[in-house]
């Protein structure tokens, strides 16, 4: 468990530097700047939660970190080397960094057995030429994902499994290639509360047993609290607050983080419901990009109101907060 002690001593496995991803505008309109200057690192054996409201750019950033979306500018590095976007190099990268998708029903082919679903990655990468080796690798991955004895699941189809079991099959499919890192996009969003706890426990166990690094994308701050070492809070394409999970979630400094936390049932903060238009990456406001919705600015912003509306904030590198308030 790395929750405190080893922070800062681990070289990043995955990092993004000044990453930008834009999508062309519709009918000649302005481009959507979905990721707009992000720096982020995930260390060896570290779990980082990326949190923020719907549409803030989490999935786009996660996909770019896996090389699935080419950046408009900026750099993604793995093991200290910038990604090579040639098809051959990307294929090799996908063995080391695996995506675990949000919806296990949608990401599993209903006509494929559990065995075939888990073996698919091995076959794509031609990892095993001998059937016995493939069978052993599939059994190991299912076991690691908590489906035991694995042979009992080999010939089952997705519709014969519970939601939690399907999510475990998706995780086994990622683990079978023995990656160094997984990126999980809302890994428990479609599961009910009891199963959610089991999958979180599984992710923590995988980190302890395999030293796996993980970036967990979620809009659920409770999930971040339960699983992550560090958290990065994203708003409209930027990270606005980042740090150890205990610090950010017990003593949030950015007004946006405070508002997100204040509406959790157990929060001691007075509930702050964010008003104003939902953020639109085709129309990023001048000054602080959160200013039109900021409760601190609405309350006077302690002498920095003029800067809030006019002065853009530098991008956040490393831990800290992007806000003009001291
Ligand atoms: N292919 C695309 N073309 C144009 N715009 C896109 C594309 N993909 C994403 N966007 C826009 O980029 C922004 C960020 O989308 P993204 O899916 O990354 O958000 P998210 O934080 O993952 O949201 P959610 O929590 O709802 O999954 C959104 O405004 C979305 O409409
Ligand atoms: S810079 Fe100003 S508008 Fe932006 S979050 Fe801080 S107080 Fe609010
Ligand atoms: Mg998403």
Automatic annotation (TrEMBL):
The keyword Nucleotide-binding applies. CDD domains: ABC_NikE_OppD_transporters. PROSITE patterns: ABC_TRANSPORTER_1, ABC_TRANSPORTER_2. GO terms for biological process: peptide transport; transmembrane transport. InterPro entries: AAA+_ATPase, ABC_transp_ATP-bind, ABC_transporter-like_ATP-bd, ABC_transporter-like_CS, Oligopep_ABC_C, P-loop_NTPase. SUPFAM superfamilies: P-loop containing nucleoside triphosphate hydrolases. Residues 14-261 form the ABC transporter domain. Pfam families: ABC_tran, oligo_HPY. One of its GO terms (molecular function) is ATP binding. Transmembrane segments: none annotated. Keywords: ATP-binding, Nucleotide-binding, Transport. Belongs to the ABC transporter superfamily. This is ABC transporter ATP-binding protein. The lineage of its organism: Bacteria, Bacillati, Actinomycetota, Actinomycetes, Kitasatosporales.
């Amino acid at each position: 468990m790395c929750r405190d002690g080893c922070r800062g001593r681990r070289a990043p496995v995955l990092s993004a530097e000044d990453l930008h991803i834009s999508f062309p505008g519709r009918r000649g309109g302005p481009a959507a700047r979905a990721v707009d200057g992000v720096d982020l690192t995930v260390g060896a054996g570290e779990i980082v939660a990326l949190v923020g409201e719907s549409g803030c750019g989490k999935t786009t950033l996660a996909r770019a970190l896996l090389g699935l979306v080419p950046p408009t500018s900026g750099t993604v590095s793995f093991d200290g080397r910038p990604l090579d976007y040639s098809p051959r190099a990307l294929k090799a990268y996908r063995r080391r960094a695996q995506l675990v998708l949000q919806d296990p029903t949608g990401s599993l082919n209903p006509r494929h057995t559990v065995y075939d679903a888990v073996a698919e990655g091995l076959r794509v990468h031609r990892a095993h030429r001998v059937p016995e080796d493939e069978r052993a690798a599939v059994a190991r991955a299912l076991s690691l994902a908590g489906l035991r004895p694995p042979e009992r699941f080999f010939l089952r189809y997705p519709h014969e499994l519970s939601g939690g079991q399907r999510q475990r099959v998706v995780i086994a499919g990622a683990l079978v290639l023995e990656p160094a890192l997984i990126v999980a996009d809302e890994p428990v969003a479609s599961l009910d509360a009891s199963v959610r706890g089991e999958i979180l426990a599984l992710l923590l166990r995988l980190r302890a047993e395999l030293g796996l690094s993980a970036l967990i994308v979620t809009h659920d701050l409770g999930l971040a609290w339960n699983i992550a070492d560090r958290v990065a809070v994203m708003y409209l394409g930027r990270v606005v607050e980042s740090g150890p999970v205990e610090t950010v979630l017990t003593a949030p400094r950015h007004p946006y983080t405070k508002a997100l936390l204040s509406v959790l049932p157990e929060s001691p903060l007075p509930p702050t419901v964010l008003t104003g238009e939902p953020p639109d990456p085709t129309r990023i406001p001048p000054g602080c990009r959160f200013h039109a919705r900021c409760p601190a600015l609405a309350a006077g912003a302690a002498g920095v109101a003029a800067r809030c509306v006019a002065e853009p904030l530098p991008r956040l590198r490393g831990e800290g907060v992007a806000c003009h308030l001291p």
